[in-house]
Amino acid sequence: MAIVKIHNIKWTLKKALAYIMNPSKTEGQLFVSGYNCDPQTAYFDFELTNTMARTIKGDYSKGGCNIAHHIVQSFAPYDKITPEQAHAIGKEFADRFLQGRYEYVIATHVDKGHIHNHIIFNAVSFYDYKKFRNYKVAAKAREISDRLCVENGLYVPQFKRQKAVKHHEWSQRKNGTSWVAQLEEILNKAVTQAHNFSEFCELVRSMDVEIGNPTPDDGKHIKFKYRDHRFCRGYNLKGPFGDFSRDNIIAAIDENSREKPLVKKSYLEKLEEMSYGQELRQVKKLAQSLRTIRAVGIEQESDFTERVQKCDDKIEILQQDISKLEQKNAEYKKVARILITYHKNLPIKQEADKKLFGKRAFVQLHQTELEAFEYAEREITRLGLSKTIDTDKVIEKIKQQDEEIRQLQLQVKAAAKLAAEIQSAHEVVKELDGRKTDGAIEPHRS
To answer: Rounded to the nearest 5 degrees, what angle is found at the Cα of 243, between the Cα atoms of 242 and 245?
Structure first.
């Protein structure tokens, strides 16, 4: 069994990396690995990617100041997992979770009673320079980790995950003193009595409840405030029909206001309605199949397989072209991020060299920038690059190739969609011929 937790890193990336790579915790860094970066220089590799992203995409500071994310994956002692196994599972977990788009460092700690992995990954992707969206990722991380545990023969408890209720709120609900429960009761009562949303708002306000963002123009999420308590967003409040989001409230009122039939429908009438619905869906499916057959010029049954194969061949060629372009662009990006970092911090380096008085204070103040400059300068020397390369032209080439990759990816999606439509049309034809969809196709007999 593995427990996965994730939190953000805003300022202390260097300290966090040093902690997880502590030799006394990782068998002398035997269980330390990096993806698309050297663990020993990961801090600078992360910074180079961030600098490149700001150059191409703009400043991310308005969207949050996370510079990295830290995942802890802990294994239960009774699983008797070895450090080698834990490290391999952790790397596979990081590869699946991050999909090969973010640099990361993984370190397996073996100094405690239980083996656990620390994974620190860049908040910005080196692939497309988009920032990692950490909204509701904990469930996805747990799912991937649990799947890996099953694949490796580790125990995974089976239980239904529900949203946790704080103990204080649980205790108040139990004692009948929860103002949240009272608010939910008021809202539910108003929903059952109102004939429209405006009437619902009037009823709610008459029962000492203040409404925030009643319309989409006022704000995205409707919220409610009961007496002197704080505001609660509707999606955090629960009722018989689900949460009290604006759409759910309107749908519930419409359902309650709908005139109910005086006479119950017979089973025969219900079946007839269901049959009509199924027939309508079949007609739509048949119409789509006919459009597909005409569009791709299918005249006989063997044409279906041939057209699908053509789509598959096209997809394979496109994916090869994408792979070549991505490899080529990766080299351009590697060069560009080093040169950008070098030229960005060069003035600070020159100013530090000129200082006669207060040099120590200046160097201490700009330590991060100077270290990044020195790292970029070493990389330029190691790779044999010229410092006079026009970075603007390199950036323009990167953007051009990114757009070419995007267009090729759109073609892959279109070909895959067409293949699926042809296969669906083939199934319809076989069904019309009265043959099994999962068996061999027999020659038609007159």
So the answer is: 130
